[in-house]
Each structure stands twice: as C-alpha cells, then as structure tokens.
Specification:
By secondary structure, this protein is an alpha+beta fold. The chain is built from 5 helices and 14 strands. InterPro entries: At4g02000-like, Zn_knuckle_CX2CX4HX4C.
Length: 300
C-alpha cells in the first residue's frame, strides 16, 4: 500500500471566495505538520498567573453570570470570570483566572467548548497583554469521512486538512492500519472570519469523483445559509443557502447539522431534501461558465 498516494483534488478552498470557479490541483509529497503554538505557550513558563481569555462567538450579548454558570457546571473547576467590556458592550470577551496551571492548561487543550450552544474560543492570557485581545483562529479537531483507507497517510492528512485550516496534528499511526478508524482525524487552526469548510471532491485513480465530508468536533452554532460561526439570518447578506451539486447535478445545501461529529447525517448529500427541479437550470448555468460544483450565490 502506497501511504503517500497522489490525490487529484477538486477543492473548495476559502469559502469566502465561493463566487469563483472550482479549481483542480495535482499535489504530491510530504507536508510537514505545523508546530503547535499552544504547546510552545504552555512550555514557555512565562505566565505569572493561571489566566485565559475567551470569546463567545454569538450574535447576541452573553452575560457574565451565564459564563460563570458554564465554568462551574461544565468545566467543574473553580474559575473566576470577568467580562472585558468594550465601548459597544457586545464583544463577549471574558477573562478567566484558574486555581492552577494544570486547570488552565486542561481548559486550553480540551477546547473548544459551547456556552448556550455558541462556541467559546479560549486562549492563554497574561497581565502583560496590552490592548484588546483579537480572536482570529480557533483550534479544533476535524474528521475527514469517506476517504478510502488506501489514501490514509500523514502526508494526505496534511494535504486535506490544509484545505480546512492550518494543520497542527494528524492523528494517525501509519504502520498500524488495524487501529485506523473509518475517518482521518486532523487538528487544525481555522479562521473565525471565514465560513466553515463543508467538504470537497477528489478523483480516484479510475476517475470517479469522491466527496470528502468534513465534520467538526465540539462545534458551536453556525448559520446554515453562510456557514459562519455565530451568524444568524439577521445581519447575513445571503438570501438563500450556499449549495453544492452531487455527481448527478442535484443541488444540496452546503451547511447543516452534518458538519458536527454528533450528527447522524453521513454527509451533505444525505441530509434534507435537495432543491429539486431548480437545480437543473442552475447546473446548466454553472457548466456554461465553467463552475460545475457550486451554485451562483456568492459569499461576501
């Protein structure tokens, strides 16, 4: 078995550029795993308090008592919580002080978490931190489903995980296939400003296209039209869901519960009923413009 088999990918890279055509890449070789910034932070010994700072990615104001209640009931640890209120009072950023470095590190390593269903992004904090804390990235484990075992490798885990975010770790013992799951487990840093990546097609050796479904561990609420964490209909520029066509040209919504590892849906094509006859015209239009995968709705 060639663990470093070439993949010919039709991929959906940055979802913010959905108005562009699907692209094809022929990639091969080893992609080194990115260093874990979290491990560097935890090993540096620079923190003089056992602190963290977190943001609840939600469209409404989350009150401090709600976060205090979460820390006590979910983390089950003694944690002091202080809201870091800005001028608009809508930042949903909180400072956490733990009793020990062990407790703080446990919370960092076991994220993300959800408060009232919305994602809490936590990062280390020190008193030396100047100005407002900016949250761009969230570290999360993803599961890549429908990838045949003959394509399981660290290299291909980096390749496919890199289409979702910055790869931190590929959880795979290449020399022990008997231990492999039905999915490839990859840890990535994803950009909170971008929509979630739902999946992508790749070509088998025989030329048959295969959909790789991305599922996220511990993911919070996102809007099913645009796939952005913390979004809702109000404030979203899209008037209809982003869609993806199966190999028969039938459109399905790109974002829905199947993005969570807790969902019983296998993938995007086994979810709710597709869009029906409207898809025939849409697919014909996309083929005429060279975009045979995504519907014309653009993401802004």
């Amino acid at each position: 078995m060639d663990a470093f088999m070439t993949l010919n990918l039709d991929w959906w890279g940055q979802a913010a550029a959905l108005c562009g055509p699907w692209q094809s890449q022929h990639l091969r070789g080893f992609f080194p795993v990115a260093a874990s910034l979290l491990e560097e932070e935890l090993d540096s010994g620079l923190f003089c308090v056992f602190g963290g700072v977190g943001k609840v990615v939600a469209p409404m104001v989350v009150e401090e008592p709600t976060v205090v209640d979460f820390a006590a009931k979910v983390w089950k640890k003694h944690v002091s919580v202080l809201a870091m209120v800005d001028d608009s009072k809508t930042s949903n950023v909180f400072r956490f002080e733990f009793d020990s470095a062990e407790d703080r590190n446990w919370a960092l390593l076991n994220g993300p978490c959800c408060i009232r269903g919305y994602t809490l992004v936590l990062q280390a904090w020190t008193p030396a931190t100047d100005g407002s804390v900016v949250f761009h990235l969230m570290r999360v484990w993803i599961k890549l489903h429908h990838l045949p075992h003959e394509y399981f490798s660290i290299s291909n885990g980096n390749l496919l995980g890199g289409l979702v975010g910055k790869v931190v770790n590929v959880d795979l013992e290449e020399d022990k296939p008997v231990l492999w799951d039905d999915f490839l487990h990859v840890q990535v840093d994803i950009d909170l400003n971008n929509p979630l990546v739902s999946g992508f097609f790749f070509d088998l050796v025989a030329g048959v296209k295969k959909w790789i479904q991305v599922k996220y561990d511990k993911i919070g609420i996102f809007y099913y039209f645009c796939g952005r964490l913390g979004h809702q209909r109000r404030g979203c520029s899209l008037s209809s869901p982003v869609t993806v066509a199966n190999i028969d040209g039938t459109l399905f919504p790109m974002f829905d519960p199947w993005l969570s590892t807790s969902s019983a849906y296998r993938d995007v094509f086994s979810g709710p009923k597709p869009f029906g006859s409207r898809s025939i015209l849409d697919v014909a239009q996309r083929k005429s413009t060279g975009d045979a995968r995504l519907s014309p709705e653009a993401m802004t």
